[in-house]
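tool_log.txt
---
The assistant was asked to compare two proteins side by side. It first ran the structure predictor on the initial sequence, then on the second. Raw inputs and outputs are pasted verbatim so the downstream comparison step can read them without reformatting.
(1)
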Amino acid sequence: MKSPIRLLLGLALAAPVLALAHDDATLDAMETPNGGQVRMAGPYHFELVLGDNDVSVYLTDHGDTPVPSDGVGGNVILMSGGRATIAVAPAGDNRLAGQGAFERSPDMKAVVSLTFPDGNTWQARFTPSARVGQGGEAQSAAADAPTDGDDHAHHH
């Protein structure tokens, strides 16, 4: 009888730590493969990269393994002064891409909604100005926080 109690106690103690492993500030502090902002969406990480009039979304699992974009479709809604909806489609490997005009502002918000071949739809919310990306302008305060060099130690 002690085993189930220990297991439940262990899970209860670990739950807050596991929940913090993927918060937005932690994700913003991580170096990203394509210089975009990363958010969790169910079993995936979505990395949103904004160009001048184009968007890319890169798919990985929580272990940073690329997930093929074949059969995935959806849209990116950008809200900044107005609202722009850009359809994205597979563009090779783990990337989806689309084009459309949109305004940028410091308070820009984005919602990425993707439907996968299994029929599941996953969404993630972004604040692109919170993380400009590698080689870009300022990043969020969380991105400037010191790290121990192991920024992605939360692998599942």
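(2)
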Amino acid sequence: MEKGKSQGKANKGMHCLVSGRSFAVIVAPILLTMFVINHLMKKKKSATKEITEGASAPPFSTDDEYDVFLSFRGSDTRKEFTDHLYHRLCSERSMPIHVFRDDDSLSIGEEFRSQLLNAIKQSKISIPIISENYASSKWCLRELIHMMDCRKSTSHIVLPIFYKVDPSHVRYLRGNFGKAFDSRKKRFDEKEIQEGRRALEDVSYLNGWESEKIANG
């Protein structure tokens, strides 16, 4: 009898664990997709209004631009959250969403990397998926700096995802997030360190999504 109760409790605990993980990894991308669609629809309505009123065509009407730019640390989130989010966005039937998915693990040259920064500029929404080792990647940090610069100078939207990290740890470089950043600082020049710190602090104050809060309801 006791054995049956113990097994029942174990199964219930496992169910809660799986449910929490499923919600954070699978349901959250659905909610994020709805958010993205809402903002894209607003931009299209605004563009239509400008054209109707005789304004010139909006700068985001070029063929080379993206709707969403995903920036992430491949070793942290590629096989779970990022993959679900990417495919959920790309498979949206209510409207086509053009997504650029950067993978910092790709071995590509500086010339192509500069094209990534241009892709951010041409995107309507950037989604940095900030995980424990995000700031230890030189290019993830560069991308974030560029996103925040674009946000200040244009109508570019930055929607941060704090994946298994607390925004306060990102803001003050604490915990494992801060340790990961410090362990790679020697790879950055002083300007990148200062700009990176500022970008991390600024993004931590933005309204975004925290995976731990989503998983816990």
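---
observation on (2): The chain has one domain: 2-215. The longest helix spans residues 2-52.
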